[in-house]
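Annotated sample (chain length 269).
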Amino acid sequence: MYRQFIEQVLDVASAVARDKFGKVSTQYKESDPHQVLTEADTAIGKLLLRIVREEFPRHSLIDEEAGVIDNKSRYTWVIDPIDGTSNFAAGLPHYGIMVGLLEDATPIAGGIALPAFGEIYSAQKGEGATCNGAPIHVAGNGGVAGRMLCYGIDADPAHPEVARAECALLAEILLAGPYKLRGSNSAFDIAMVARGRYGAFLNRTSKIWDNVAPQIIVEEAGGRWTAFDGTPIDYSSAVTQAERNFTHCGASQAVFHHIQTIIRRTRSA
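Output written by the structure step:
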């Protein structure tokens, strides 16, 4: 039920993204001068909110641009109109649209659209993950895909020590693999983990809308999606968590366990 609905709304939203691609002006959010915003983010966000509210008027919603609509429901839709806005604004195709659904604190359905590639990834709890209807799986234990990982870093000049520490940790992870670093720091990377093209995607500065849809898709594809340190992500009282910083480590089973070993060893050193 939810999965089919998500696929349909992502298809509609993808058409808007493709129409606006390469035609938008760029500005920065007042709340965060490091975050890019375009007309496409606003237009797609409004479209998705309208469709979801029409179909599920009693559910709560969290949208990256519009904020929170708290209907005191056990179901919460979590929407990212464009993930990878900087890429989109620069005319790069590595961006996506993400819609996820929580039942209480558990992701139960989600979808990611990659409009530039004509792909829609979706999953519902217990039903597996697909790309355009075909089953997908995370990378196996061997092969090149399992040796390629993505790591997103957004540096803040006000806290240079954080970026330097992250780069040092990234170096340890890469060397211990040895892994090859790739990535667009967007929904594209998540999709590539889910379909077995990359072994992992890590980020220590993200939001709830960067996690709900990815978690159900990667897990249903056979992988793991946790906080950066390997602990479960807490989505309880989701409507109160729109401003919270989330971290994540999404990976195939083998890569996940190896990376977590490196993270624990580096932090204890």
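Annotation: The radius of gyration is 17 Å.
Annotation: Helices lie at 2-20, 39-55, 85-89, 160-176, 187-194, 212-220, 253-268.
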